[in-house]
Design goal:
Elements lengths: L14 H12 L1 E5 L14 E9 L2 E4 L1 H4 L6 E7 L6 E12 L14 E6 L20 E10 L5 E14 L8 E6 L10 E4 L4 E9 L5 E6 L20 H18 L8 H8 L9 H11 L8 H10 L15 H8 L6 H16 L9 H19 L2 H15 L25 E9 L2 E12 L5 E11 L3 H16 L7 E6 L20 H4 L2 E5 L8 H16 L3 E4 L2 E2 L2 E2 L5 H5 L5 E5 L7 H9 L4 E5 L10 H14 L5 H13 L11 E5 L15
Parallel strand pairs: 13-16, 16-17, 18-21, 21-22
Antiparallel strand pairs: 1-2, 1-4, 2-3, 3-6, 4-5, 5-6, 7-8, 7-10, 8-9, 9-12, 10-11, 11-12, 13-14, 14-15, 19-20, 22-23
Length: 684
Amino acid sequence: MTPPPAGGAWQGPSDAESALMSLVKDATVRIHRPEPGYAPEGSDGDFLGSGFFIAPSWVLTCAHVAMEGRGRQVDVVYKTARGGDAVRVGGTVRAALPEQRPGTGGWPAPDLALIQLLRPVEHPCVYLSERSTGMNRGAYYFAGWADGGGGTLKRLGRECRVVGTVDDWSDGDEQVLIEASQLYAGMSGGPVVDLARGEVVGVLKSRSTDTNGGTAIGVERLRTLPVPADAATAESDDPYQAVFHAHDRYHADRHNNPVGDEETWADVQRDLGCAAGPALTPQQRVDLLGRLAKLPPPVSTRSLLDILGGLGYGYRTVGVPAPRGWRDGLGVLYDAREGEEALERILRYCMSAIAAERPYVVPSTKLAEDALWDWVKETAEDRLRRPFRRELAQLRYQGRYDRGAGHLRTPEPADEPVRPPRSPSVVVLHLEPRAWQPDEYDWRVVARPAEDDLPVTENHQGTRADELPARLAPSLAKAFRMCDEPDSPAVLQVVVPPALLDLEAEKWELPADGRPLGVQRPVVIRCSDGLPAPSEDGAREREARWNRVHTGPMRAAVLDCDDGMRVPVPVTAELRGQAYETVPVLCRYDTQSTAGFGRVLEAGYGVVLWRRPRAERAAACTEFHLRAVDTVDGTGVADRLPQKIQELRKGVREGRTDTFWSDGIALVYGKPRAEPPDPFLQAP
């Protein structure tokens, strides 16, 4: 808000701020439970709360508002123009975070929902921030619908200040504390706009009992929407990409329209004196985002992080959701240094988007690439020196043509995109029992999309084993988004001491999916206890054994069972005498078998197959021996085993009788280490 002159009274909002507030209120809607015969102007009809248009036919609100409809069906009521009539249109909740309310208490954060209208209508949309962290201390404005007295619903707007955060142990739990006067029931789901930057950065979630404050959720939390399990074949396959591409095209179209005469968000942002980072004006930004939104999205978060890393920009992984779309990556680059370097980095990013691998190709893809190149070329010619412009031209040539060939890089729509093989990605979960509370654990989650580790989050407060799945769910989901590729989910490596080998992490269910982790993706175990330092010969043997099973063929050897009878696991010297291609199989593993398992690991085996104990398991184990040998020997090389185990777990869940022998199967997979486990992150 405009500050008062020295010694004077408060002057109220500036003209630009007033224009911004009008744009916000124009796009703010109210959500109702569908009722026959409902009159839009009245407060009846089961008013649920507020929301706001973020893209044509898309409304953002709180999950606790939207999910109170009838079978995910709601009515959206909005004004066609300032002072115009109210219009009612049906909508469907396409996504909610989380999808279900817990048995007790209120709806947990992030408490966001996307509603898609059931028919096309004309309406205004807000501008959403593309930054990874939207809400910091400062002055903001919010809008929403509430009972204005006499039973009539009115659209209200108020100033507010961000004064802090409320969070616990995960990225998804963070809420922003706001101070505001007259925050009424029904305003939940309304937009929160940054008055300095002129963009919507949050969603009202709750209010305090005295109506003088409450909480909000940053819009960047929408990045935590579930990623579709299958590779995208169209923009509509991923609601996140569909919504934000439509959002950016909407604002670019409105701003570049030579016929319209209404103020756009970019116009108001210009009048506010905003800048999109150190390099772009609001007009340049909205034009660029509109062009990026005509491209197919990145193949995955992992591929987007690779592009940002190639530009020398280290994405801050702790505390913020990982980027998913082209606009998100641009927001990350706003923190680059000022001057020519900042603009050069943005233009290189655009060139990477032009040349990027595509999840799919449509007829307009080449036109979109050409349009983005035109923007890059014109911007560079206007503001940058000739050597850099020459570098861009070379990048454009390399992107359009294969070396030594004269054909366009982009395949025809009918062609299947060719994806070169990539090194397997891994998400590592470190679990460490607390010495003074052995039934509780400290933990750390690390994403490993390539060679570098990207810390995601950690917890040193102690978590009971039965609470681990719920507490780890947001952090694991974030790490998976950073590492997954279409049709190639990252491997989850659970690092535990040998005493915790019976921890069945593959059975955990993440709330966003509901399927066991071991069905969703490969889940393997790595033992964290430091092994005795091997001799020089022993170290060579471990390396040779690991390399041999990865070049194949492997050979399974059942070590603890003979003709259905338990036998001791051989001593270490005998285990070391086994051929390097051997993969130990343990049939009779239980809590009494840790010593034998320890000998296997001490002997230098990095790949071990076993099955967890079951009280109801039949004594006969011939089928397990036969199938385990077939599985190991038939898989060929060790790096295919995690995916093979996942296929077997899926078969058990789907009721395929030919896989029932593998119920409870588990895999140790990790290069034997003599050094102590990786240290936990240090608190800042």
